[in-house]
Write a structure and sequence with these properties.
Strand order of the largest sheet: 3-2-1-4-5-6-7
Order of helices and strands: EHEHEHEHEHEHHHEH
CATH architecture of the largest domain: 3-Layer(aba) Sandwich
Number of strands: 7
Number of domains: 2
CATH class of the largest domain: Alpha Beta
Bound molecules: NADP nicotinamide-adenine-dinucleotide phosphate
Number of helices: 9
Shape: globular
Amino acid sequence: MACKLFDLSGKTAVVIGGAGGLGQAIAQGLVEAGANVLISSRKEDSLKKAQEEIKAATGETVCYYAADATNEAHVEALVAEAKKQLGGKITILVNAQGFNKKQDALDFDIETFRQMLDANITSFMISAKHFGRHFKENGYGKIINLSSVRGKIATKGPGNAGYCATKGAVDMLTKQLASEFGPFGVTVNAIGPNITATPMMVSVFEKRAADAGVTVDEYLKQQGEGNPMRRMGTPEDIVGTAVFLAAPASDFMTGNILYPDGGLTAIG
Ligand SMILES: NC(=O)c1ccc[n+]([C@@H]2O[C@H](COP(=O)([O-])OP(=O)(O)OC[C@H]3O[C@@H](n4cnc5c(N)ncnc54)[C@H](OP(=O)(O)O)[C@@H]3O)[C@@H](O)[C@H]2O)c1
């Protein structure tokens, strides 16, 4: 029998960015722990593919709904749709959306910077506002924000001004929301992964490897050597932390940022 502290039977979760590298792995982990899950992002075909892959891996069918999390009307519709598809009550929200575009600060395209703020932090606020209202009504809820080690430590060298700024903002939003939502029985925590091989990172890896004059495989090996565990993170490395933050085991933990990062922030 599953340990009750980590049992998500009877819980319902919405994973925004649920067709992405980390979001899909987290959605699958929540399903395996017993939750009924809806995944969301902008592209319906990616959601359908993620649904099929989760079904193949677990035998369970997740629901999906296409929405742009930067658009407040879309997020309101997502809450309504999730309530309909998940049986009226949602207990867990995961914000796993966003993107990274690396540019030198001296040449940073400001429109791109604004788009990163919109996708990586404003969307987290919009979803927290609308799911938070629902959680307050229920007197219970879990919000899990995907931050990054880059919310805490800068990258050596240029390129990450937009990304680091947005992830630092995610960390502080997490703490402030924890302060505001705690009295309603709602926890708000963040996960700060190290660099992880997901679709978001493919073009970044290719550019960095080309800049360094090495193959992508050699570049990834070098990246892994930079942390105490001496390897790159995988999406599966993030899942246990997400399940913990979604589960009763973490009911008295709020406003925290947890780092499944191979020890990078210990030495960073
Ligand atoms: N991979 C890493 O190395 C790493 C490390 C630390 C933190 N993170 C963070 O973890 C989260 C997930 O990253 P990932 O690597 O899984 O990226 P990914 O594979 O590119 O997935 C990102 C997901 O976000 C969705 N998305 C983007 N903009 C959206 C919007 N406006 N509204 C709704 N959905 C949107 C994308 O789908 P659509 O394009 O179809 O909307 C996609 O499903 C991000 O917050 C990222 O910053 C990643």
